[in-house]
């Protein structure tokens, strides 16, 4: 080898690819900041409400939880590639909420202890959600049904079962302590009195309530823990590495001995468990269970994943991207409420953001391959 | 020198079609063999029998003097017969280190995945079984207890299967370090080991695929059209790498259409035509024209009597 052959000039291409990678990662954050500023200015000038407040942050985070959980499920499936997308997770969410609510209503009516009522209800919802997820995985990995079709079918089947169980109505008559979980906070701060865990300080009177600042909504804390877990699985474990590998090149994965079928099955099952958790959270927030609980979330979740830079072709994407995607959509939803606008604008706005995301992604890719 | 790999009268039929018809050859340590032939001559079918993708209908394969029977590609690979196909089998979205260790990732010290799944299953199953058994008892007496217990244990086990692999952490730093070593040994230069493979040039990708095989102790390397998609200087680099491999004792079998390449690296050239071996030539003693005429059959008209000899004289430089 002669010296001049030794170094093919890769540097310029490399650094440009690095820059584009950074742009693709950073733009959603800039977009979110810009959006917050715009909302703040508009709300200040039109109805005098201060948009940048602690309450807004909390509201946005709570709005984001459901989109994020379903978004994480989609992130896993979409990264695993090969046409992977799960069109059943939002119905699994409703199914889980219905199961949990159904169990808790029965146990509450039977005057069983609160802790056990909650434990059985939650685990019932989450565990039964495993079934559709596992079946999805088996159909995709073993029978090779395209994910679009298998999860579409599974989604309708699950939706139908949830409707049958709930007789097409919301399952109400839930224990009163259920709402304390879904709408309560991990921590309350009462100036001059200090912090209390989980409950409003017992000493506080009705008049004191407006001074007590709720910190960290329970559902946000639970979602955060689940999100960290999924980030850890995707970024650090061998299972996560295999999901990326399968999404990048399934043939190479098979040839190099990756247990492709098992990895895919586990991915779909994990997605369904996330939907199950989201369903249980829904039940605690709305103290009921309904088959259509997750209805509008699916496309918002996929939008969040796309905004976060996850490639629909598989092999690329991250949990952090989906978090920012979910935050952008939640900010749009919350902002429109604060501005007193018609909520229907959220569809228009989210649509525009998704299109921007795809354009940025495409431009980045095209320039990278020039 | 004893042949490392020896194929005797390998035959493969697909229905009525005889794709490979009694082809024999042997491979000695340190040599490069060019395998040439027109489209449909049976090159890839022949290679796939050696690499375990197909099972021969007739004939034997000997590796290191012992008769071997490959039932799938992994058998061949475990013996050290590595095949690099044109698509290179790289995951382009992953970095160099992850590709070299694709499917055999280096892990941080931990308990085995199976044991971890069992422990997680027990941890999930026992409380869930107890909880749901208790709940079942409240509503359906003994039947409920049994159903709740079974349900809780079963789904707890599923959760263990699902989350048990969380203990298996990939050691990226170590994989990158090992990859750097493997590539250095072969004098391959890669700008960055954390770079996605899609940002590498064709030759560099080829090098990564080769380095991967070498890292996993390839003893015979089979390469399918390694230079097909490369520019001139990259072709040169890959061919240099092939010579490096051979000089380190790893024989290489190269399938190629490109006579220039074959003559640049091969010690011996084997020519297939319509499933039969029609020639085996020492590269230094023959010409591209001669090889091409054997490939397309022009030569057979003149040397009809020689071909059966070539078929019988499988091995030791039988020169038609």
Descriptive account of the structure:
The complex is a heterodimer of chains A (370) and B (320). With 370 residues, chain A is mainly alpha-helical. Chain A has a domain at 60-182 and 235-369: ABC transporter involved in vitamin B12 uptake, BtuC. Chain A contains 14 helices and 3 strands. In chain A, strands 2-1-3 form a 3-stranded antiparallel sheet. Among the domains of chain B are: 1-25 and 54-67, no CATH class; 88-108 and 170-232 and 243-251, Rossmann fold; 113-167, no CATH class. Chain B has helices spanning 43-50, 73-79, 96-100, 113-163, 172-185, 202-215, 232-247, 259-265, 288-296, 298-302, 307-312; strands spanning 5-14, 17-27, 32-37, 58-63, 66-68, 81-84, 220-224, 252-255, 268-273, 276-282. In chain B, the strands form 2 sheets. Chain B has a 6-stranded mixed sheet with strand order 6-7-8-3-9-10, sandwiched between helices. A 4-stranded antiparallel sheet of chain B has the order 2-1-4-5, covered by helices on one side. The longest helix of chain B has 51 residues, at 113-163. Chain B is elongated. Chain B starts with a strand and ends in an 8-residue tail after the last helix. Mean pLDDT of chain B is 85; it is low at 301-320. Chains A and B meet through helix 2, helix 4, helix 5, helix 8 and helix 9 of A and helix 4 and helix 7 of B.
Defining key terms:
heterodimer; A: 370 residues; mainly alpha; ABC transporter involved in vitamin B12 uptake, BtuC; three-stranded antiparallel sheet; B: 320 residues; alpha/beta; Rossmann fold; four-stranded antiparallel sheet; 44% helix; elongated
In short:
Chain A is mostly helical. Chain A is built from 14 helices and three strands.
Which two protein chains have the largest interface (Cβ within 8 Å of the partner's Cβ), and how many residues from each? A-B, 51 and 51 residues
Main β-sheet, spatial strand arrangement of chain A: 2-1-3
CATH class of the domain at 60-182 and 235-369 in chain A: Mainly Alpha
Q: Compute the average pLDDT of chain A.
A: 88
Would you tell me the structural class of the helices and strands of chain A?
mainly alpha
Strand order of the largest sheet of chain B: 6-7-8-3-9-10
Total helical elements of chain B: 11
Strand content of chain B: 15-25%
| Quaternary structure of the protein | heterodimer
Q: What average pLDDT do the residues of chain B reach?
A: 85
Number of helices of chain A: 14
- What is the alpha-carbon Rg of chain B in Å? 26 Å
Which fold name corresponds to the CATH topology of the domain at 60-182 and 235-369 in chain A? ABC transporter involved in vitamin B12 uptake, BtuC
| Biggest sheet features of chain B | 6 strands, mixed
The secondary-structure element order of chain A is: HHHHHHHEEEHHHHHHH
The rounded Rg of chain A comes to 23 Å
Helix content of chain A: over 70%
Q: Could you list the spans of chain B in which at least 5 consecutive residues all have pLDDT below 50?
A: 301-320
Q: In total, how many beta strands of chain B?
A: 10
Overall morphology of chain A: globular
- N-to-C span of chain B: 22 Å
